[in-house]
Structures
1.
Amino acid sequence: MPIRTISDKQYKGVSELYRKSDGEVSGYYVTYRDIDGKPVKRRVDADNRDDALLELVDIKHEIDVQKQGNTMSATLPKTIKEILRQENKTHKPSIVFSGKTMQEHQQIISAYNGVAIVSLIDIVAFDDINILYGYEAGISIVDTMQDLIEEMLIEMRMSGLFSKHGIETFSYELYHVYADKLCLFIKNDFNHRLLDFIVKQLLTKISNHKFIVSEDGHIHINATVGATKAEGSVSLIYAEKALQEAKKFQNSYIFHDSYAMEKNEHIVNKVYETLIANINEETVTPYFQGIFATADCTVPYKFESLMRILDNDGRVLSPAVFMEKSKDYRLYTQLMIQMIDKVFDVMVKHDVAVTLNLSYIDINNTELCDKLISKVKKMKLGKRLTVEIVESEQIQDMDMVNEFIFALKKNGVMIAIDDFGSGFSNFDTILNLDIDYVKLDGSLVSKIHDKKYRIMLESMVKICHDLGIKTIAEYICDESIMEAARSIGVDYLQGYHLHKPSKWDSVKETFGFNGAQNA
Amino acid sequence: MHNDKDKFVNIAELNELKTEILTLRKQLFSDDISKTKNRLWIYEQKLSDNETFNDFGFMVSIKIANYEAIVKEYDSNVGNRLLKQVSDYMIGFMKEHHLKHEIVRYKDANFLIFFHGLNEEEVEDNMVNMQKSMSNYKFKYRSRMFMLTFSFAVMQYIENESFASVLDQLDDKLFQNQI
């Protein structure tokens, strides 16, 4: 009777013995390597494919035990076949490799009634693998990853890891959710430390594994894991957040706590509602903070415009509350367009010079940039406007930013760089961009009494002056910092000590109608 | 000449002693897990002998949400680390907003903040901003990520007012304001 190989990858190593006359399966063969590494094909006593697979797992386990030394066998728990036979069928580990969409997986996980573990396993730089080795190699790597996860869980189960932690039975499902992403859904309220252990073992196993990509060789890959333990209804979203955070900060693993999330989300959802309301009701409010010439701190030279929004109770919310969220929700551009309109209104009505903060996201936004430039041209306000580039460390395309800068400069707009000296906002930026002002980072200015910081700031001011760039010191929060900033030759000063950001009406009351000298 | 040298040594010793006393005093009134003040500081510095306030301002009571559940799940070491991070966040917020304050960890996850030089509306506004901005912040300890928030209640206090009475009223308000 001939032997037929089973094509389903789940039954790798199991073959069917079938009768040629009627095609009926009459037995099963398993293929494995013995203790000396020689290939062995042997018939097993099994009624179906699953039984044959379990026999194969047990055979492989026995070989492993023999390899490790006979003394261990006495301490090892029951074999998986015995465990599984004794278990209730509903608790039998089930591994599902499905072609379902993410939404369908989400529905399955969301429908789970109780606390579960969801881990998303993402292959690092999977696109590179596809490009360099082809899509087939990519698919093969994902398949191998699935095998590795399955093998590892079986090994852990057989080594008694779960029973040691009081978990006798549990079931899990493994989904292939995106091209490079697997989802391990464990239907059990595991201790978070046990999950940490599992994930760390898995990451080690993956990074040590030789993934075959061609007949000639293999590669090593790494994975990133985002996991959570939460109610089924929210677990996948939390795992996504954890994975996103891990990838953002290049961590191999992040576990997202769920215990404080419900109350946290109550507040966060309110921020979303507030953003929508501010967009619809056009209540984005510019605040203005004076920037003073060092020689005369009585009247501002110009004003920095700062975005604020209002909550349901009419409270003014600071950027720390809404700025990042507005970018996450992709609502930031709508806020910024309102902000530009309102700042220009103040410039027109009150003849003042104002700085407007733009990030790399803004400069990348064609609609917003076109609107700004056409407004500057139409209203002929270029000479009273300074565009302050914030978060300049995010700039990736200097040419594109320079194009924008020159388009503004043709209309008389001045350019400033914010937070100079911190993070990656450095000399490289000012050498590559045509700028007029540099704003020294507030965290450095606040430490100006420290000799080392003073020397550094003084050098920065000197270099800027040598390059024809004027300097502004932020964070002037008291008289002593102001005097120290003056003494190192800073051109302009800004901070709470001189002027607290406020609405234009209040600015008018403080400084008179045409406050800024540069009008 | 010899006397002058002795005098100089004595002044130096006195200065050293003064520094040591200040350090000890700071340690005595510091919380053991965060950079806040402790309960003893309230009784020794903020209150008179009859436990009434010796100054005036606004007192804010803050309770970190779900702290007990977090400690139960992850243990008190993780809980303590988070309390330190949360208090650092709050101190950073108040520094950034130039708020004149004193912060105390009163018990477990309950902090008290004393504000000066602000009116009630400004205190409320600042607290709402702190609460909302903290809700966006991701606290991390080793490979774990926590998104925390807090409930708060604000109450004005004046000189000679009983601390216990203000605290009781704040507890009632905090219960009503619970998220």
2.
Amino acid sequence: MTLLSLPMLGLLGLAGLVIFLYFLRRRAQSQTVSALFLWRASSERPRSALSLLWAKLGLLLIQLLALALIVLSLARPVVTSAALGGGKIAVIVDGSASMQTRYGSETRYSEALSQAERYIKNARPSQLTILQAQNESRLLVPLTENIDDALEKLKNSKPTLESDANARDLIEILRSQGDLKEYREIAFFTDRIPSNPVWKGLPARLVALGKPVQNIAVTGFGVRLEPNRNLGYSVWTEITNYSEAPANLQLQVQADDQIIHSVMLTIGPNKNTVHSFEYSDFSKTRFMAQVNLLNGQDAFPYDNQRFFALAERTALNVLWVGEANTFLERALLANARIRIARKEKLSAGDDTSGADLIIANNAKLPLVSQGRWLIFNSSVDQLIEAQTAEPAQKLSVFQSDHPLLRLIEPNHIRIAKVLRSILPKEGKVILASGDNPAVYALEMPQLRLVGFGFSLQESNLVLTVDFPILMKNALGWLFPQLEPPVPRQVGQAFSLAGLAHEGLEIYGPNGGLLTVGESQSLVEMDNPGFYRVHSNQEVRYWAVNLAASESEPGAEAVQEPLVKSQESETQVQAQLPLWKYLLIFALFALCWELFVYDRSLFRPTAGGPA
Amino acid sequence: MSSLLLDEAFLKKLANLKFITRRHFFGQLGGWSSPRAGVSLEFAEYREYHPGDDFRYVDWNLYGRLDKLFVKVFSREEDIPIYVVLDTSHSMSLGQPPKLQYATRLAAALCYLGIKDLNRVGIFPFARNLAAGVAPRGGSAQLHAAFNFLRQTTPGGETSINGALESFAKLRLENGLVLLVSDMLSEAGYREGLAHLLYKGHEVAVLQVLSAEDVDPKIAGESRLLDSELTNERGLQVSSSAVRAYKEEVRRYVVNLKEFCQSHRIEHALISTATPLEQLIFQNLRGVLFR
């Protein structure tokens, strides 16, 4: 019990006044009666010492009790205890994919729900909020006093196939409903105890769920084009056995719904294996690896398949102006099917409309206003004024985050000379040698141009490992549709940038059409599989997979639920103010005092003789 | 005339009541039928004529038919001496309203009833001894005197019922109806006094007037009880059990008095000052003292 107004206890000094007044007043009442002899029998009854003491001091004791209760109530006592209930409580239930792990008929999520429900009923909060934690965490129940309704909503919630939640997102959602210090406790029911330090200093109760289960998973799957050999694809699959027992399994790989590979594998407990093979059919773009456990029941089957979608190898018509370069051709071939038409020189009146890409190497170009251009050691009239070449200086990076430099190490590039060039204001210098642009990009309406201000023959660039990658990046920037598919996970929001909204249609793995608003720039995908995207009369596929981390049993998985409670100084526990109860008792004591003082007031009046 | 004691309307109502007596008294001419033949308007019977009878009472019609002389005998109406013996001791001053105030109003009503029926009514106040009161007489002047006396009555003195009644019995009075109005609270008792009255041949009715405080005292806690008439006092811690014991003592005292009265053919009525006087006379005492 805590006294919020401790100085009020000083009023207990009034007890002295009460005692003084009591003994001052304590004189026998003189009462005249008609016949004293009738009272004789009353006084002859023997009385115990205790009753005599009570008769003399009873009133005083009651008065002192009433005073003590009143003073104590003025001191505003509160009982602080979690057992009393009350206060704000936040309950976070992990809704990530791993919570769908099954134990017989139960899932981790249903276990979390029952534990959370039991916790809420025991805690008896006055206000409750419930969050579901996954990659896109959401507020299941805003802060409410209607606990029954909140429990009903919690019961009706379903887990997702998304990855684990970001702790900072959860904290932000909680903070959006009030100061974190106001929470009596934040209970997080999860199969992975988060190690994020944001939980430190919060009144967090982290309840770990989970039991060891048998689980195999396709933890990695990729298909890579092998351009040099023109053989087709290398298909690479990583399978992990998260069980304590060896797993006999069958791996099947499908390409465009056709099984192209099947193999039986045995993987030791808590081991993984990589299986790869080559496939020569260029026409396939959608690949799926699937494993089936043959010796047992997989508790978490959602990670038994993984998807991969290749971008279509778009055929590009290339108009090559100037000198040929084998290294450049090879590098371009590795990334696209190109058909090259050569021309020594390009004049202002030449028709370039049939070319998807114009490559100029050591050439002088007329003014260009549209198309995709990749120029090396060349100038463009009225656009890129290139004069004489100067000895190059050490390359400096102007825009390290530009897509052209992705996975590129600029320090590897050595150049002998660089053109003295002046770029229009739309031009962006990416690498520079002194004041001269060495690598630059120009983006104007209907025009995209990547330029290199040095000769490939006077540079080591074509010999570096960065060159094919740099060309891939250049093609990717010039033709965004050639960008290799980024790995996509369930629950993540994907950008629709580069896709024309008119006629945009996205179909889910089950064939259902996703609704995409006109102003929508992101789309979220809730299930693993292939999403078919129709845009600008083109069809492409997005492969969406479960986060590989969801297959892991989790470092904190335990045999029995583990409760870790962290209490901080800022923890706000339930407080029960006692003053009103004390005042009621004081009032009761005063009534008692009045009753004892003049009990005849409460005695029914006798009817009297008639 | 009686504005302080009884109002006019109440007195009019009293006109319909009449005292009930258990036996006949031979008094003066009055409003009560006497077993003795006498002169009144009320015919009683015939009897044969004897020499010396008043010729005015011979029924000549009957003589015409039977050829024999008969005289008409009329009933005789006599009065009853009514003696209101009023306790004016100090104990009668207690209560709310004071018992004496209630008792004087009751006594006034009794006087009015008596005088209305042409009886002689006297008032005999007493405390330790019989005091000077109003000698028994009839007539409206007597009623005026009785009311005046009652209005001026003040409480005082110690109660001695036995002594006062013995003194009353020694008075040379005709036998009559003695209405003893008192709280009857006397440590010395009341039996000898009442026995004296009976021995003298009076018919006695005890109207015991008690206040609500007498029956159900509102005393609690440490108290010093003073006797209203004596100098005695007793310090007492009045607990609920003490009050219970007192009430039991009062009940036993009243029951003893009632049993004594019943065994000696004395009417006894226990009267609370909380009872309105009108209710007392027209309901509680009707059939007991009045008809």
